[in-house]
């Protein structure tokens, strides 16, 4: 956590759209020997091939990322049990990003150069993704990124299996508007995703008859929310749009309840709290609050029943599944399908084969959009229940085509 705090000055001082360049520069300086970087080749010579798993197994983001790592391991196990990929078994190589962006860049380079992986799966925060993006681009190696994010990005060497803006944030705002909750207070962690997401939210609000009455940020890992919660309570908002990440949510929602604020009095819609975080924060602090995702453990369907049963058999009957876990899980299966369609582990051939790849996912059928390297996904709004699970209260009726730059929305033209 200390690494996060010492870098707060860097993260807090950059604008959302300029953050990528700043963090990319940071990552470029901290990777392992970059003289070996360009053209680093995966090792496909033996009966096994290595795949990289890059997650925060320690630090403030471990509350969310350990379970993503577990879901990736489950998918690798399933692929191997079904015969592997092109007749080769997968050997997972795990690296701990430690909730520290330069460490993510270092570990990404190690996976590519030292472990010679055929693909890497992982990252959570946009700051970590921005830090590793130039590493994967420089090496022409593939990253599969499994978490919803702020959009406004495409990379030739990243596949995004989580939601982009028009598959999560925009539907969430549409839902709030339909519920008559038009006066918003924005609370987020102080880094790329919340600042960019809130810029989009403010642009949407201006064009859709909504008001943003306040906007506050806290450092990742922060446990001090008394001031922010007091400002929220006195602002006169109808709802809070929450983009806090990691274990800061624990402190925020405890302070929220302590201040007498409830889901009935002032609902919070969160875009980074899933079932695992609900369990860690405590249902007593979250019951009735809203979330926006593409998958819940309660999502109906045989594919999800199989996924939940397999995960709980591997990690414990009391362990919930969540959207980021599911998006990570499907990313391994989608990559397998791309490789087999290409008939090769070669990165450029895999990319060329990606368009139209489908998978009967726990969230429902998903399809890869080769042009953007994102996935068609159904938007879902959920409500936290007393048993700690999240029940869907609305969905988009079917998969939404990814639009990371919001080109299909007139109000977003200036973004």
Averaging pLDDT over every residue, what do you get? Answer: 91
- Identify low-pLDDT runs: 1-37
Global Rg? 20 Å
Q: Distance between the terminal alpha carbons, to the nearest Å?
A: 32 Å
Query: Counting H and I runs of at least 4 residues, what is the number of helices?
Result: 15
Shape: globular
Helix fraction, binned, reads 40-55%
Strand neighbour order, sheet with most strands: 7-6-8-9-10-14-15
Counted beta strands:
15
Question: Tell me about the biggest sheet?
Answer: 7 strands, mixed
List the helices and strands in order. Answer: HHHEHEHEHEEHEHEHEHEHHEHHHEEEEE
Taken as a percent bin, the fraction of beta residues is 15-25%
Structural class: alpha/beta
Which properties best describe this structure?
seven-stranded mixed β-sheet; 19% strand; five-stranded parallel β-sheet; 415 residues; alpha/beta
Q: Would you write up a description of this structure?
A:
The structure is a single chain. This protein is α/β, with parallel strands linked by helices and 415 residues long. It has 15 helices and 15 strands. It has helices at 2-6, 8-12, 19-30, 62-81, 101-113, 126-139, 169-178, 192-207, 226-234, 248-258, 275-281, 283-286, 302-315, 323-342, 347-352; strands at residues 48-55, 89-96, 119-122, 143-145, 158-160, 183-189, 211-218, 239-243, 268-270, 290-293, 358-361, 364-369, 374-376, 380-384, 390-395. The longest helix has 20 residues, at 62-81. The model is unreliable at 1-37 (pLDDT under 50).
